[in-house]
């Protein structure tokens, strides 16, 4: 049995504001959270929530994870870009070439996202969130495949991608060179132990796969902070 990806968490200086932005982009509903977060609830096969968590830290450097949003036509790509801009996003330059078909944007707190052009074959069978695109090694792709029990759907030239057997977005890693981390990742995963599973047993399993503990124990909510083989933070939640 593997862990379940419960949420993609986004550290936010203004969680309600950032949640409103992403709810408007994705068309998802929002809900409150006991941790002071605002949760976005998927209405498709995405399979995980998005949690905007309160944080006082400001963004520094490029994120290790960003959204790739898909398009079925050039008109839809333009509509998505216009919607992002109308909701408070902006165009940014991360070194993309002028001839590339995707549009690089940032949300109101500077988190990068891409609106992918129509006809992208790699994301052709995915929904609106086509992928969580990550900066990372081949090793970390293998780790997350084993951690979540998601099969590899791409493994070539040290680039990897996995996808849930139930569909939803792909998670991709671009391989070397991997940009150095600039502090704690603003986007990170929350995992739950397998159904009826034990949190400590799951932590031990993940350590056996190459993860490490990031703290001395559980926090006040019972979460265990960990890092994957590339040093990216994630949490294993307490069973409910």
Question: Can you walk me through this structure?
Answer:
This protein has helices spanning 15-26, 74-86, 138-148, 199-209; strands spanning 4-12, 29-32, 38-41, 49-54, 65-69, 90-91, 103-106, 112-115, 129-134, 152-156, 159-163, 170-173, 187-192, 212-218, 224-227, 233-236. It has a single domain, classed as Roll (2,3-Dihydroxybiphenyl 1,2-Dioxygenase, domain 1), CATH 3.10.180.10. The chain has an eight-stranded mixed sheet with strand order 2-3-4-1-13-16-15-14. Strands 6-7-8-5-9-12-11-10 form an eight-stranded mixed sheet, covered by helices on one side. The protein contains four helices and 16 strands. It is 20% helix and 33% strand. With 240 residues, the chain is of the alpha+beta class. The longest helix has 13 residues, at 74-86.
Please tag this protein with its features.
single chain, 240 residues, 2,3-Dihydroxybiphenyl 1,2-Dioxygenase, domain 1, 8-stranded mixed sheet, 4 helices, 16 strands, globular, VOC family protein, Glyoxalase_6
């Amino acid at each position: 049995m593997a862990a379940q990806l419960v949420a993609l968490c986004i550290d936010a200086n203004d969680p309600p504001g950032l949640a409103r932005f992403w709810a408007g982009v994705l068309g998802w509903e929002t809900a409150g959270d006991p941790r002071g977060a605002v949760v976005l609830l998927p209405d498709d096969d995405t399979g995980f929530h998005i949690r905007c968590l309160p944080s006082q830290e400001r963004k520094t450097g490029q994120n290790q994870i960003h959204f790739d949003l898909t398009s079925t036509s050039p008109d839809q790509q333009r509509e998505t870009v216009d919607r992002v801009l109308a909701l408070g996003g902006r165009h940014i330059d991360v070194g993309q070439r002028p001839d590339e078909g995707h549009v690089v944007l940032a949300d109101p707190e500077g988190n990068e996202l891409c609106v992918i052009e129509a006809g992208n074959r790699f994301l052709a069978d995915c929904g609106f969130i086509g992928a969580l695109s990550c900066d990372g090694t081949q090793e970390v792709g293998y780790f997350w495949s084993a951690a979540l029990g998601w099969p590899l759907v791409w493994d070539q030239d040290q680039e990897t991608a996995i996808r849930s057997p139930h569909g939803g977005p792909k998670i991709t890693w671009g391989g070397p060179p991997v940009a150095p981390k600039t502090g704690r990742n603003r986007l990170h995963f929350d995992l739950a132990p397998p159904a009826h599973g034990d949190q400590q047993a799951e932590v031990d399993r993940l350590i056996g796969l190459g993860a490490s503990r990031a703290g001395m124990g559980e926090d006040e909510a019972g979460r265990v902070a960990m890092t994957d083989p590339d040093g990216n933070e994630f949490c294993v939640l307490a069973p409910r």
